[in-house]
Amino acid sequence: MGGGGGAQEHPPRRSKKPSGRRAVEEMARVNRDFMHRTSRLLAERGINQFLDIGTGIPTEPNLHQVVQAITPSARVVYADNDPIVLRHAEALLHSTPEGRTAYIQADVREPGRILAAAKETLDFEQPIALSLAALLHLVADDDDPYRIVGELLKPLAAGSYLALPHATGDFDPETWERVVEVYRKGGTPATVRSRSEFSRFFEGLELVDPGIELAALWHPELGEQHSQREQIPLYVGLARKL
User: Which InterPro entries does the UniProt record give (predicted)?
Assistant: First the structure.
């Protein structure tokens, strides 16, 4: 694994313990903040193609609004398997005249289908930013999320990026065991993962400084400041394909 200043080798600051319900609600907002920060940073670095899987119900600003404000010609492809998101997908398609946006109704467990459809909008000979916000902690080990991420990254050009957050039970395992059980009883295969398990997603990639961190501590200067959000047990990382 590549390094981003070596910060990923040291344990992060300990997260305070939020209640399960509040943590889940806040985590959705923190995930979105991280997506905004990484997208803004990458657009400023010249990345003008984005593949956002696990889009969720559109909430402004959407990813294409963030990056097209910097690069009007940016192209963005969204993908989600939720039929509710499909009903709201029109809001994701209001691109600038210079750029393009598209929406794919597909499950992350079908990486081949997503990639084939994305090629209609994105140029796979050029770098692409792959965003998987608020998603992989909803993919069970039986579905092999490491394989899924590997298959999504494989056809991307060198210089592409992976932006990834993930819920963890490292700081309050009892609370998150209860949260996971609630999700599973509702039919959602939720899974929190440790720091070492999360790090595996970035094997073979070069982590951007400061490496793997808690979400609120990852380049907070690029987004809004929220005093309570450093309590959210969400690891994040951004890495470049070599």
Answer: SAM-dependent_MTases_sf, SAM_dep_MeTrfase_SAV2177_type
Question: Helix 20-44 crosses helix 173-185 at what angle (to 10 degrees)?
Answer: 90
Specify the pTM: 0.88
Give, rounded to a whole angstrom, the gap between the first and last alpha carbons of the chain. Answer: 11
- C-alpha–C-alpha distance, residues 135 and 170, integer Å: 18
Contacts of 38 (CB under 8 A, 6+ apart): 129, 131, 161, 163, 238
CA separation for the pair 115, 127 (Å, rounded): 14
**Mean pLDDT split into 10-residue runs, the chain, 242 residues:** 37 48 73 93 98 92 96 97 91 94 96 98 98 92 97 98 96 88 88 96 98 92 60 92 98
- Structural domains of the chain in order of their starting residue, each with its CATH number: 7-241 (3.40.50.150)
What is the rounded distance in angstroms from the CA atom of residue 161 to the CA atom of residue 153? 9
Tell me how far apart the alpha carbons of residues 127 and 18 are, in angstroms, rounded to a whole number.
38
Q: What are the residue ranges of helices labelled H in the chain?
A: 20-44, 63-68, 83-87, 111-118, 145-153, 173-185, 195-199
Per-residue model confidence (pLDDT) at position 224: 60
pLDDT at 205: 98
| Tokens found for residue 112 | 């081949």
